Amino acid sequence: MKLFGLVFALSVFAFGVVMMRIEINRSGREIGRLQNEVDIKRARNQYLELEAIRLESPQTVQQLAQETLHLRRTPPQQVIVLED
User: Quick check: 65 and 71 in contact, CB under 8 A?
Assistant: First the structure.
């Protein structure tokens, strides 16, 4: 009976070790996948920050206004200032 108890205890221990190892491997793969996702999101964020800076520049705004909205600068002689 003692031998059965010892074998049973060792079997439970071995099963626990195997399950722990499987979980460690799964966790490692998940950590790798999440790290890859974080790297992709950081690169995307950096790209969007640079794009925002580019789009905020006066030259870009003027170019987009001319190309997209067909806006042009008003000549000074056509500007009418209204007094209060």
Answer: yes
| 15 within a domain of the structure (yes/no) | yes
The one-letter code for the residue type at 5 is: G
pLDDT in tens, 6-48: 999 999 999 999 999 999 999 999 999 999 999 999 999 999 9
Round to whole Å and give the CA distance between 60 and 31: 41
Distance CA 71, CA 78 (A): 15
**Cβ pair 42, 49 in contact under 8 A:** no
Q: Which domain holds residue 21?
A: 2-73
Instruction: Give the Cα separation of 48 and 55 in Å (integer).
Output: 10
